[in-house]
Amino acid sequence: MIDQHERLRGHRIRTTLKRVPGILSDLEPTPKRGSGAGSSEPKLPISETVLEAGDVLRSVLVSWARTTMEERHVPPPAEDTIPALVAYLIYHSEWLGRHPAGDEAEDEIADAVANLERLTDNSGTTIFAGHCPECGQAVYAKDGRTAATCTARNEHDESCSTIVDVEAGRLELLTRATDMHASAVDIAAILPVPASTIRQWGRRGHLGGYCDTTTKETRWHIGSVLNRLDQTVTNAA
C-alpha cells in the first residue's frame, strides 16, 4: 500500500511539472515593438541567463527520466526536449514519488522550475497568491497562473521555493479579509467584479463603508461586496 507521504510527494512533483508549459510559453521570443505578426523584423532575443536556467531544467529532467527508464524498464521519452521530458515524468510521477530518492527528485525539479519561473516573471501583471505555508511570506503569481513559488530567502540566502496554490491562497485571503475595508480597485483585484460596479453598489446603499479622511477615498466593506456578489449570482441563476 502506498505511503501517504509518498503519494503527496508524487502529487507535488506532478503539480510542479504541470507549470512548465506555461513557463515555456513566456519564453517564446517576441517581435520588436511595431512589427506585426507577419513581419520579417527580427525578434527580441532571450537572455543568456534564461537560456542557462532552461538548460539546467532540461538536465534535471533528463537525469530523472533516465532513472525512471532504467529502473522501471520502460521505453525512453519520445524526445529529449523539455515538453517531452515533462510529459514523460508526469506520467511516471507516482512512481517517482515512491522512489527512495523521491525527496531528492522533488527538490531538484522544484528548484530548477522555480529558478526558470523567477526569470520569466520579471514583467507582466502579478496577483496575490496567498501566504507561504512554510515561511509565512506573501507570495505573488503571474496573472493566469494556477500556482506560484515562494521566493523568500532565509538567513542562509536559501530560497524557500514552496509551491502555493493560487486559488487556495485567494480563498484564504478572502476568509481573512471578510471584515476588512478596501478601495474598489483593491477589491476588484481579488473578486470577479469591476471596481465601477462596486462603486455603483455603494452609491445605491448596498454596501457598508467609510471615507478615508487622509486619501478622501471610500473604503468598502469586503464582506458586503461578497454578499452582494452572491445575491447577484443567485438572482442571475
In words, what does this structure look like?
By secondary structure, this protein is mostly helical. It folds into three domains: 1-29 and 45-123, no CATH class; 124-177, no CATH class; 179-236. The chain contains ten helices and seven strands. It has helices at residues 4-18, 20-26, 48-72, 82-91, 93-98, 102-120, 166-177, 184-188, 195-203, 222-236, and strands at 126-131, 138-142, 147-149, 163-165, 181-182, 209-211, 218-221. Helix 1 packs antiparallel against helix 4, helix 3 packs parallel to helix 4 and helix 3 packs antiparallel against helix 6. The longest helix has 25 residues, at 48-72. Residues 30-45 have low confidence and may be disordered. Residues 20-46 are annotated as: Disordered.
Task: List its salient traits.
237 residues, 3-stranded antiparallel sheet, 10 helices, 7 strands
